[in-house]
Amino acid sequence: MIGVPEDFYDFQIWKYLKNEPIMEAHLIGKIMLDYQNSVADWWYAMRIEYYIQQNKIHVIKDSKSKYERMICLNNYDE
What we know:
Layout: H1 10-16, E1 22-23, H2 24-34, H3 41-53, E2 57-61, E3 70-73
Antiparallel strand pairs: 1-3, 2-3
């Protein structure tokens, strides 16, 4: 079995994540619709969480459900 680096699909997140806030579920949905590969939604959610912890993605409005959070690039001005 051949694997890819953990960040191999991250370019798909950066393609759709902009300065304008978007619900995390919508972002993941757009990615999965355009890139119909075998990557699961939880994988994108895990990578988004990683970048939130790295301070590269900003949570504009938090939610108990991570998929309902409003997120954007970290240079968002409220």
